[in-house]
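Section 3.1: Structural characterization of target chains.
Under the original work plan, the team committed to producing a structural model for every single-chain target entering the pipeline before any wet-lab resources were allocated. The record below documents one such target. The sequence was received from the expression subgroup and is listed exactly as submitted; it comprises 75 residues.
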Amino acid sequence: MTKTYNENLQTSKWLAIQIELLVMIEEKLKEMKLLAERAVQAQENREEIAQIQSKMMILTEEIALLEREQQFVLH
């Protein structure tokens, strides 16, 4: 019984970590969507578009790090 309990506890912790990582990725994707929508509205403003592109690159890198962390947790 203790072995099953420990396995269930490990699985629960693993799932909690997976959910947390996915929520963080989802938040970053939502932010990227908002930035893209803002870029469409600011088509004429090159400076603002450059700032948006910079923020989107940072978000892309952060998502990649979260995905790597998720892969690490999977194994």
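The radius of gyration is 18 Å.
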